[in-house]
Amino acid sequence: MAKTVPLRSELPEDFKWRLEDIYDDNAKWETDFSKLQEVLPSAEAYNGKLESPSQLLALFQLEDELSKIVEKLLTYARMRRDEDNANTYYVGLTDRINTLMSEMQTAFSFVEPE
What we know:
Blueprint: H1 26-39, H2 53-83, H3 88-107
């Protein structure tokens, strides 16, 4: 006798994660994504200019702020995608945040050498 996996919609709410605790809706995800895109280029202002502890602290604070947003965006997108891998909208969100994460790594790549 073959068992079937129930659809997510058939599961009781107690067995589902509450991604609304991360973002109420996709529009809020988009707002944070846009914010990250806008703020990310500001890392370039520190490239070649890490000459004092205060500049280094400011850079690390920026990196921490952006990392928190990235983690939130990534968690939401990946968990939404994992609810239904056939949902191309959430596959797309996951791809977008993965691309932006790569851009962030590139934007901060000067830190270690400096």
